[in-house]
Every structure is written in C-alpha cells, then in structure tokens.
Amino acid sequence: MGTGDAERTVARLRPFASTIFAEMTELAVAHNAVNLGQGFPDTDGPAQMLEVARQAIADGLNQYPPGSGMPVLREAISRDRARRYGREYDPDSQVLVTVGATEAISAALLGLVEAGDEVVLIEPYYDSYAAAVAMAGAQRRTARLVRDGDGFALDHDSLRAAITPRTRMLVLNSPHNPTGAVLSATDIETVAALAIEHDLVVLSDEVYEHLVFDGHQHHSVSMLPGMFERTIVVSSAAKTFSVTGWKTGWALGPADLIAAVRTAKQFMTFVAGGPFQPAVAYALDNEQQWIADSRKQLQANRDLLTAALRGHGLDVHRSDGTYFLCADIVAASADGLEFCRWLPQHIGVAAVPVSVFTDNPGPWKSLVRFAFCKQEHVLTEAVRRLARL
Ligand code: PMP
Ligand code: GLN
User: Fold this and answer.
1) Ligand 1 atom nearest residue 39's Cα
2) What is the 8-class DSSP label of residue 384?
3) What residues pair up with 367 in beta bridges, in sequence order?
4) Strand partners, 250
5) Which ligand lies nearest to the CA atom of residue 108 in the structure?
6) Is 285 helix (H, G, I), strand (E, B) or coil?
7) What is the C-alpha to C-alpha distance for residues 140 and 138, in angstroms, rounded to an integer?
8) SS3 state at 255
9) With a 6 A CB cut-off, is 236 part of the ligand 1 pocket?
10) Residues 340 and 353 sit within 8 Å (Cβ to Cβ)
11) How does pLDDT run across 102-123, given as a tens digit for each residue?
12) Quick one: which atom of ligand 1 is closest to the CA of 238?
C-alpha cells in the first residue's frame, strides 16, 4: 500500500494498514531471503489428514457447513479437550468452529465488548488483538511481560494497574507469541484472581497449546476455579497440524459467551471451510503421536537455532514454547525494526521486530523474533547467512 492510500480508511483502523508479517514476507520474497519472519511451517501436516480433506472434496462436501461448524468437528474438539484437560464442553452450545483463531478473537471482541469498553492486552501482544479491539470500537490498555532471567514473566503490578472500572475483557496468550514464554502457574493464577475480582471475561489464546518444550506445562486459565464461566478458549489447527492455510480454528466456553461469539461470527464469515472440518476432526482423534513428534522436532530446531545464534554472539532468550525465539540484536543495531528492514537485503534472512507488538516499545526495541518451524537445511542456511552479521 502506497503512502496516502490509508486516507479513506476509518480512523480507528488506519494504524493497521499493513501487518508486519506481510511487510517482512514481501521483503523476504523480494531479496530471496530465508524467511524466519512470518511463522508458518515449510512441511505438511499428517498425510492421512490431508487425504481426508481431499476425500471430502471428492465426496461433495463442498456446500455451506452448519454455522457453528460440522458436528463431526465440534464433537472431536470436545473429545480432545476432555481427554487432555478433563473438561467437557458441550459440542452443540459450547464449541464454535471459526475461520482460524483470528476470527474467533475478532468475533469474541465484537460479540462481547461494548464500544468504549476497555480491553487489557499483555504486551508484547499478537497484532490482531489490537486491531480487533479497534474494530469493536473499544479501548486497549496494556499490561506487560518483563525479562525474567533468560526468559519472560508477567509483571503482576502492571496487570493490576491496567484494569479499571471500564475493563470488560482481558486477552491472555500462553504459550506466548512472540516471546516463546510459557506463563507459570503463578502468573495464570494471578490473571484468574484479577479476572474474578473485577468480573472480566478472559479470552485465552491457546493456539500453541501443544508446542511446549523441555517438559514445561501449558496451564489453561479456563481450568482454575471460577474461570470456566468467564473464559473463552481459542485454539486452531494451524499450528497443531501445520496447516496455517486451512484457517480452521475454534472457540470454547460457556454457552452464553459462545452465543455472543457466534452472533458476531455468523455475520463475519457465516461458516468456515467445509472440507477441512472432517480432516481436522480426524486428526484430533488420530494424530496425537504426530503432534508429539512435531513437538520433538521443533524443540530440536529451537536448539539448533539458539546455539547457532549464540555462537554468532547474539543474546538469545529462552523459548519454552511456540515456534519462535527472541534474540537481542543490541550488538548489531539498537533498533529492531530498522534491523529487520535491513536484514533481508543485506544478510538474506527475514525476522520480525518485537517492538511492533507493543504500545511501549522502549524495553523491546532491540529484540527480534525468529521462527524455527522450518526444515533443518533451511535453518542451517539462515544460520550460515547470519554469520555475516
Ligand atoms: N494467535 C496467535 C498467538 C498466533 O500466533 C496466531 C497465528 N500465528 C493466531 C492467533 C492466528 O491463528 P489462525 O491462523 O488460526 O487464525
Ligand atoms: N501468526 C503468525 C506469526 O506470528 C503470522 C500470521 C500472519 O501472517 N498474520 O508469525
């Protein structure tokens, strides 16, 4: 988009004209760089899952599925959650299939937050949260993560300070994009206590729920006492089964919250892609071993990239989950955004600056995110190029 093209965009969306992922992927393509910017895997999900989708198309499953999602998928999502967390969500009233986690997030904000209400985000925050808050006509306030040893933790005081009498919703994301932090039980308990005290709805973005390394535990805030009633859990097949292009996600929660999400969702897209739904249902029931193998591979990728970047003198932070890690590029440049705009052309690698995910970029300026959901030879080539830094 050229300068000036945003003039006719409504004021509340003008700051969101282009995402950092689009910008960095464009630079990567233009300069033939290894793209460790936008997070998408370069290998396919489970072969049999892909086959089920192909078969669904061949079988003529090509018209509108039901608005809430096909029963076969809603039932599989419910079974999967019950198996892994011990909580039953009613497939009819408490599970909603969406066009990726992205739609679940936007629909939750549109369906549950009044214009003028406040929504608390924890920075650095995934970019679509701020845009969705703006679409809802709400105001965002931010709490923050802070550096904690070589990792990151929630600053509890900042969370307390961000909540006001106008706060309606808090958006939580663990395992966390972009830092790779997996929030501790204490952090999650603090979120729950404050949500209950201030009667907030919590939108818990758990799209990386399976991508947790070194035996770390993912804690879903929805499981804490008093939280089921006020939590919408969002997840997606994108990361779990390496199908970011399928845009098949879901929201789980009590019937009254899901009804609100559904109300908005049905006028955003009405329904999500039909043939993908039986395929994701199949995978949830049958491909848990594939998920475990993929997690193991990602952990090895993380180790490879971490060691190599450290070898090049970068200060790499610990990544306990997701498929991202963050490195301090202070030695090379003070400004991560400038650095990431320079990197594809001059070094042949794309990355993403963390500061663009914040309202207060100060402490995040020198941090850069690298995605490691790539084949080993791709990571090795990126590392070889980064040696020139
Ligand atoms: N939340 C987070 C934290 C993400 O990183 C992403 C995408 N990478 C999404 C939501 C969006 O997921 P989907 O592609 O299923 O819309
Ligand atoms: N969620 C992916 C990431 O964080 C990118 C999604 C997008 O391009 N909007 O890299």
Assistant:
1) 8
2) H
3) 328
4) 97, 235
5) 1
6) helix
7) 7
8) helix
9) yes
10) yes
11) 999 999 999 999 999 999 999 9
12) 15
